[in-house]
Amino acid sequence: MKLQEFHARQLLRASGLPVPAWSVATTPHEVGEAAVGYLAGGAERVVVKAQVLVGGRGKAGGVKLAANPEEAAAIGRAILGMEIRGIRVRRVLVAPAADIVHEYYLGAVIDRAARRILLMGSAAGGVEIEEVARTDPAAVVRVHAHPHLGLLGYQARQMAFALGLGAHLAEAVAIARGLVATMVANDADLVEVNPLAIVRERASDGTETLSLQCLDAKVTIDDSALPRHPELEAMRDLDEEDPADVEARAADLSFIKLEGTIGCMVNGAGLAMTTMDLVKRAGGAPANFLDIGGGARSDKVATAMRLILSDANVRAILVNIFGGITRGDEVARGLIEARAQQERDVPMVVRIVGTNAAEAATILEAAAFETATSLDDAAARAVAAAERAGAAA
Amino acid sequence: MKLQEFHARQLLRASGLPVPAWSVATTPHEVGEAAVGYLAGGAERVVVKAQVLVGGRGKAGGVKLAANPEEAAAIGRAILGMEIRGIRVRRVLVAPAADIVHEYYLGAVIDRAARRILLMGSAAGGVEIEEVARTDPAAVVRVHAHPHLGLLGYQARQMAFALGLGAHLAEAVAIARGLVATMVANDADLVEVNPLAIVRERASDGTETLSLQCLDAKVTIDDSALPRHPELEAMRDLDEEDPADVEARAADLSFIKLEGTIGCMVNGAGLAMTTMDLVKRAGGAPANFLDIGGGARSDKVATAMRLILSDANVRAILVNIFGGITRGDEVARGLIEARAQQERDVPMVVRIVGTNAAEAATILEAAAFETATSLDDAAARAVAAAERAGAAA
Amino acid sequence: MSILVGRETRLVVQGITGREGEFHSRQMQAYGTRIVAGQRPGKGGQRALDGSVPIFDTVAQAVAEAGANTSVIYVPASGAPDAILEAVDAGIGAIFCITEGIPALDMLKVVPVVEAAGAKLIGPNCPGATSPGRAKVGIIPASIHREGRVGLVSRSGTLTYEVVQAMSDAGIGQSTCVGIGGDPIHGLTFSDVLALFRDDPETDAIVLIGEIGGSEEEQAAAFAAEQLQGMPMVAFIAGRTAPEGKRMGHAGAIVSGGMGTAAGKVVALEAAGVRIAASPTEIPRLLLSAGVRPQ
Amino acid sequence: MSILVGRETRLVVQGITGREGEFHSRQMQAYGTRIVAGQRPGKGGQRALDGSVPIFDTVAQAVAEAGANTSVIYVPASGAPDAILEAVDAGIGAIFCITEGIPALDMLKVVPVVEAAGAKLIGPNCPGATSPGRAKVGIIPASIHREGRVGLVSRSGTLTYEVVQAMSDAGIGQSTCVGIGGDPIHGLTFSDVLALFRDDPETDAIVLIGEIGGSEEEQAAAFAAEQLQGMPMVAFIAGRTAPEGKRMGHAGAIVSGGMGTAAGKVVALEAAGVRIAASPTEIPRLLLSAGVRPQ
Fold it and tell me: Is D250 annotated in the active site?
């Protein structure tokens, strides 16, 4: 689960990391109010940042600087309500603009191959780490945390020296260790600060100080760990979620909406991906990934059907069930029930094999469903059905 | 550093362990007041326990039960002020007496050979674990915690089942893991609950419940870890310490008072023990263990001398210095200073070898100290000097 | 022979009294798997599966008193890491963790302990393993198998069943089918299982069922190029149409930062001489053309 | 040859810029020990010991750029566990930790990491080791040694110096003198060092200096009985008069619950055929009577 920037900042701050002040505003007026405070406090400008869970906010015009409260409010008016990659901006973050001397990247991820938490750093901050890794792999510094002891002091120092942060050693060590500690405390699978910056601050007497600060924060939580972190589950941004995703989660279905026209209902993640792949191979485009899980009962099948049909693009449905724990006859009965409740008539191709496949076949035949036996055949029939339905529409 | 029982109870409770209520009282009146509360709360009797850091409180009459507030106050009067193994009782703990169904022992120590935290348990609680280990070794259950992950759930369950606590599994697991967690959180080298007891409680409607409770607590803290636990250092009971120990600690000297007549001043713990052993072998008895440490300067020597002479039993002093980091001439000068300040005239035998031993010899000779070259010779001379002094006294 | 499970398997079922544990224990027993013990803290002394199997409080007891050498775990996610560690500590050599939904950071702690002890962990979030005609451990349906000499290893569940069924229908039997699990952090990797197949005299060819996410297929390709020359190998990779940045059901099935794509895996495997199936149904044909004979 | 330190030693001093670190580095260098690097975070690029030794920010750099293979640690107790782990991670083979006062629970975490990496940790709270005429690492005074063929291992500092001085005075030289440290949880044990001496062709006899607390002397006795027959061995145990329940200076020197007494250790060693000295001064005599020849 991705967290909004302001939630991610909260977590970093709770781990003791230096995150400068911020406010969250939902109206242009609130943006202006927040700006008044920061400008009075000595900031020369404030930054207004759209709070959305998609990348590319900056390029989309979702991040702007303002030199006075009026300008801030105007920017807030422009950004609030804006759509970024299909997501409407409902909140912005307002913060004093930092006087940045240098930007770094620092992020912790789970390295699957090494089975360790991997801390990555780069002295080229502000750009995406994947970009740095591609163009200048040597510029990415990698340190693996100890599996039980976390990121050790010397490891944090190695990172700091490798990034050229020797002059800010104690700060850099605390931030590196704090980043990994944040990951562990919150069961995150990504904790990223980009940019981590050396920031210049001037006191009223004109003296300047340089310090390391976390100017942005990105955190994603391991979904498997959410049951033991209700405080993080509460941060879930339902406003930004498709209602279908919310319903799928409630029904414990694994559902991902895609752009195509053929709705897929499958048991098992690998088989569901394969079904999508075969639809594509047969010349169609899958409308979704949907895994109804093992041992799915008829009510789950009905919910799955409703989710698929909530997508207006869907022109045909492909049901592909390999009965292991899941019983084929149970799914067949679920399909009949679902069809009875269905408001929209969409052609359906059903393939049920494995446990109780014969019973399922009998039931489906009696109900006059179009059936298929092989995977490839099922995909081809579904594509054909979608094409027919598309031509008819 | 040993903690008083009431401090140990605090630490266990802070780790979430079930420790029944208690009060600390310093006057018979306070004992009576506490008893009023517990008896009103449903307890049939209260227990009054002397708070001292020596073993054998029970046998010495320092633990008593009372059935009413008057009796409690009377017992408080008897125990407060009592001496147990030379320690005056200044505080008692008052607690409701539990209705004990069965007593167990559970304790965590550092197993030096295995280099693990060792949790020991026994279904024969209430007696010392060393006693059980001696008389019925098979009755002691041993589980080593994981060096990084602590006591794992299954290990706690193994302990619970081995003690026959299957009917109290969840409680026993929480207590076992909490015990080890208490050790780790506080850098303890011993955390002991004896007895851990199944306690019967009757509700006002007559229903009975059985629960596991920690009825006593013993904790000792690793001295090396005290610098990072100021909150535990603050629990040190100076009332119970010899003023000489307090002064030694302040001067960073390792000092232990013994029963003999020959004061010893040595650099290095191994050599200090050896010096004591050789005094004994020569027919004398050491008055103390005293390690002045490496690189000891003259002021430290003077403090050491004062500590030794604060013991009225001391009849002779043996100084044994092997100069490595410590410079012999520096020690020699320190001895001359110390003798100048000395109020009591006690014969001294000095052996200084190693770094700057020749310079030391010249200084000592000029100041007319009795010197020795070999270890055995030094011990023999000190014993002879003490005998002469004893005969003269 | 076979790998991981076989006639020598003496199984303890951790969580035998749960709904899933009991259901699958019956299936395994019916298949002929020797279940010597069940384990469930607090039910020690009772018996499971109609009295045929003793239940112990601890895995250590199941090892000491019933001689268990293999364990399968049907314990909820909150207790599964501890169950794995208990099995390791009790000296179990092969541990199958069926449980789904264990947090990745828990597994980061568990896996090094397993490896230090020299034990083999399969899963979590895996369907187990079956050596047809000998024994099955886990949840793979018994009916799909056929005895034979092709080893199969997969990150998936039902997709594996599809492939196995297709192979069996084509007369191609299996030596052992192993599901290594769909979680990002798990025990045996593709390469680990390939090494076991390499050393198994009764395995002549290998089928690998991969999917998007991670780099195990690429590592398996490197392993195959170095260590499996002369052993025919066919692979299928699921998720060619999966969008970037989304978890496709399995916690481990995610393309991120352009890494872990199906295309990259296919390229790596092809370069190592592995034949790639465009659909699961192609697998039997590719095996036959690689010289595997139906039995 | 010799054990642990010798002509092949390429030393990095962790904490070379501190008071103790610098003082003893000069002593070690004067003795002929090859100090190839110092380490102190934040002082990388500077030089120590009158410009003769480069300072690095990390131990990894000292290994990569100066070829260090041995480290000695003069870092305060709060930073010493991390310094040990850094040396292990950098691939240092022998790590001498002089630092005193490290909490036991810190060492409980560190030691398994050291062991898993196959490194040798000597200490903490130890005086180091000297191979006379070759190299010294730590704080043992140089002047007391004499080249020879008797190995010495001890839990103590100045007591060791006494014994070494007495041996040298009697014409009995040493192959290597090792102080394993006075803390309850430390790296190499008596038995570990005895095994090294057993395998050293230039060690003909062994002196062991033990003290109260723990059971390493008893384990050493068992090791000697099994593995060191034919190699003369003399031991001295300090603390016969120590009272129970008190730490005698060293954190590890404590008799508790009747365990770890000097008497118990003496009995165990005698039973293993080890000659026991009643005083350190007896040691040279016992060595001579055991057939060791002065050099």
Answer: yes
